[in-house]
What we know:
Elements lengths: L5 H8 L1 E7 L4 H11 L7 E6 L5 H14 L2 E5 L3 H14 L3 E3 L4 H9 L15 H15 L14 E5 L5 H10 L4 E5 L8 H5 L5 E5 L2 H14 L11 H16 L5 E4 L5 H14 L5
Parallel strand pairs: 1-2, 1-3, 3-4, 5-6, 5-7, 7-8
Helix pairs in contact: 3-4, 6-7, 7-11, 9-10
Amino acid sequence: MKKATPKKKRHSKKKVIYLVGESTGETISKIARASLAQFSQEHIEVKKFILVKDKPLISSIIKQASEDNALVAFSMIEPVLRDYLIREAEHRGIKAIDVIGDFIVQLSIFLKEKPMAIPGRQYILDEDYYRRIEAINFSVKHDDGKMPHGLKLADIILVGLSRTGKTPLSTYLANQGWKVANVPIHPDMDPPEELFQADQRKVFGLIISVESLVKLRESRLKQLGLTPYAKYADPVKISEEIEWSKTFFKQHPRWRVVDISNRAIEEAAASIVSSYRTGKKPT
């Protein structure tokens, strides 16, 4: 009975493409739109999955993709998740490609159709595309304080306490072509000297309300299977950390401070970019 339903008939007529992203999915969506513009899209169905950050979800998506006989295009920063997705796809016998690869070529093979040679359609995959890929690679290598000697090469440096959105903001800005590094700070930890040797006008300190940070840290503890009452999410300790961070930022007057409390990533990122370009304080 299920095979005779309209839903199954629809899927049998269409070529299905899965877009799987570890973050907001903006980059992979843009690349997919630019690449698909080379093809007739009448019989193509695109399914998008964002914020894919754990293996069970990857397994579920790949299983569904196998049932749809789909092509999976993915953008995974975390090597463990990327390798796991590839293995799952191989196990299910479906094609999975990284968007950093030649997406148009893979689509041509999958759709059994030659790309249309229309001037201008490939532009987004040229300078802009490779600029963003370079920025993404830079931000991955300089995430969470890694490779501090590269801070001087960053366009933007984000500094903040744990769970203040440094990595999501770095990823989002990198998708727009900005080379972003982020550095964690804590009262009991000394930041790398390279942070103070870099252009201080590029440094943005992230602050957040106690309530917001408590929720974020409780959620993180839950993901790790730990009790939400750990010191890491203690409102009193968090309040002390936030006050310390504000004092720390004041010691570096050339840094610009951004309050990310209850703000969407897009809004916070826009504020940082505007401040970076104008030299004014973030709104």
